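Late entry, evening session. Most of the bench is empty. Finally got around to the prediction I had been postponing all week. Sequence below, unchanged from the version circulated by S.P.
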Amino acid sequence: MRASEKMALIDRIGRELHSRFSFREIDAYLREFQITTAGGSWSSKLEYAKASLHGEPTDRIIAIAEDLDLENLHAEFAVSAPPKNWIGTSKFRLFISHLAKQKDRAIRLKECLVPYEISGFVAHEDIHPTLEWQLEIEHALYTMDAFLAIHTLGFKDSYWAQQEVGFALGRGVKIISFKMEDEDPTGFISKHQALPRRNRTAEQIAEEVDAMLSVDPLTSGKLKLAKQKNGKAVDDELPF
């Protein structure tokens, strides 16, 4: 969800809380979502509610809007909700694009990224059976912090894989091309130097992915925050 969309949604929620509840009731309602209200003396319930909501995670804001049954919420904002396995997480969100036949490799890499507070999304593992799979992939693409493509033979010929790459390019997120086999990235991402495997283990690749995300201006701040929130030591010295 874009910042402007989130602010508009917070405004809608604030107006709804203003019309329904007293100050005390707003406090009680927001506590149900583990939100500490703004405090202080306020003359406007609208501004008080909005001040209490600013800075809260997007998925929590969406959950409140859904609970309040705001009109047209699905059409306007639902696609920007995270997929099931990212709801409520404060970890860094990495979309891992791969061919279906390579899902075991993608899952293995996802597991090795966990110690770095990086939560991977692997479509063939993370989509719950009761959820529409294409919509859940869209949720992940809209809310990812970065994108990693596992290039194996046939990746460039996969319509789904190329659509995921195109989505990442359109959003302007950090893209990592991981060259697993003898197939180079093609199209617009070919300009990015691929991360080669070179017989390295999944643990070693995960370590390098973490290093790349830690120094890139697009991702370093979010990854550092994820580590701080989850009690990980953060090295403030950038490698030279």
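Two things to note before I forget:
The chain is about 50% helix and 10% strand.
Residues 3-80 form one domain.
Will write this up properly tomorrow.
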